[in-house]
Amino acid sequence: QVQLVESGGGLVQPGGSLRLSCAGNGFTFGHYEMHWVRQAPGKGLEWVALINSRSEFTSYGGSVKGRFSISRNNGDNMVYLQMNSLKAEDTAVYFCCRDGGFYCDYWGSGTQVTVAS
Prior knowledge:
The chain has strands spanning 3-7, 10-12, 18-25, 34-39, 45-51, 58-60, 68-73, 78-83, 92-99, 104-107, 111-115. The mean pLDDT is 97. It is built from no helices and eleven strands. It is globular. Strands 2, 4, 5, 6, 9, 10 and 11 form a seven-stranded mixed beta sheet that branches. Strands 1-3-8-7 form a four-stranded antiparallel beta sheet, with no helix packed on it. It is mainly β and 117 residues long.
């Protein structure tokens, strides 16, 4: 069955960096666009970034553009989110999800990122 497993979250100081990873299994990873989505405490889901199946195209939400970078390695079934210049408002649970056409059809369980001094 389809599985997505995120890792790499943790506690980081403002201005610091983290790299999140997401491992995909149970499907042909290289055929799907992938997304990162986050949910801050007490708030709704916020789309963060996407990457198309062959890494030809990426897009970012306005709040992270210029600070975050999405990438993937289809040979290893991995998608990554490099997060730099982190701010307190980046504190959230970060999810990777598989693009199902109009929405994400499979989601990981998330990884917590906390930005605090």
